[in-house]
Amino acid sequence: IICSWKKSTSNIRDVFDFKGKMGSGSFSEVFMVREKRTGKMYALKCLKKKHLAHSNLENEINVLRRIQHENVVGLEDFYESRTHYYLVMQLVSGGELFDRILDKGVYTEKDASMVIKQVLQAVSYLHENSIVHRDLKPENLLYYNTDENAKIMVSDFGLSKTLEHGVMSTACGTPGYVAPEVLAQRPYSKTVDCWSIGVITYILLCGYPPFFEDNETRLFSKIMRAEYAFHSPFWDDISESAKDFIRNMMHKNPTRRFLTEQALRHPWIAENTAKDVDIS
Ligand code: ADP
Ligand code: MG
């Protein structure tokens, strides 16, 4: 299939006014931009072609283009120039998940459960469409807008294969959210996202990560053995239901780990077992 809706431009600045940089990684930079023709604001992800020499980007873009979910950042358009690919993404303005939690005075299990439910619904939808995110972490969970009850949006997915976000680059970057089987370089699947959601849930409830080691080798071996605990006193007042949810999401064995469908049926998500008292 060829990418029939791809647009070419000799200079992306003919199409957009650049407003400011929102983020940058090793393969890409993200800018806030205004489309000149319509005045609409977007997040523009700029990828250097030289990093994508043998990639399958256009096929992956064709998949992303069809992705539409209320908790998933939408891909609106796609440009290429001689040197770059440009992904025009829906702009969300509420900031990253953890930044807001730090600002919030009161935080409850119920708040965490409602955030995780939205993440599960988004990731479940991606999985149904055969997309494994592979890089789920707090920086990729964004609030839709600045309202107190704004929904959560999952971003930065679908290009992970192309950008080799897999074993190597993750191992060089933030391994704290990566599943044991990824570090062990075994073939992996949708269940790696469920592990990451377990890690994010853990942090939401206690404020520190399940694995922390200054030494990367020790960190890797702790993750590979799924060696985490619910330490006293930090976890004393957290419900047994929350811990059960995390144990199922962070199961060392991927074949016994929850998939999103099971996770969405767990009482901590589906029923009222998440406590509604301040844990911040
Ligand atoms: P990277 O590959 O560099 O991680 P991301 O797509 O995660 O790229 O974007 C980097 C940062 O830019 C994010 O952590 C987020 O703060 C911001 N960002 C990304 N996409 C959007 C968006 N659609 N709306 C608003 N901010 C965004
Ligand atoms: Mg990112």
From TrEMBL:
Residues forming the Protein kinase domain are: 16-269
Q: Does the keyword Lipid biosynthesis apply?
A: no
User: What GO MF annotations does this protein's record show?
Assistant: ATP binding; protein serine/threonine kinase activity
Q: Does the keyword Transferase apply?
A: yes
Q: Which UniProt keywords apply?
A: ATP-binding, Kinase, Nucleotide-binding, Serine/threonine-protein kinase, Transferase
Question: This chain belongs to which protein, by name?
Answer: Protein kinase domain-containing protein
Source organism (scientific name): Pagothenia borchgrevinki
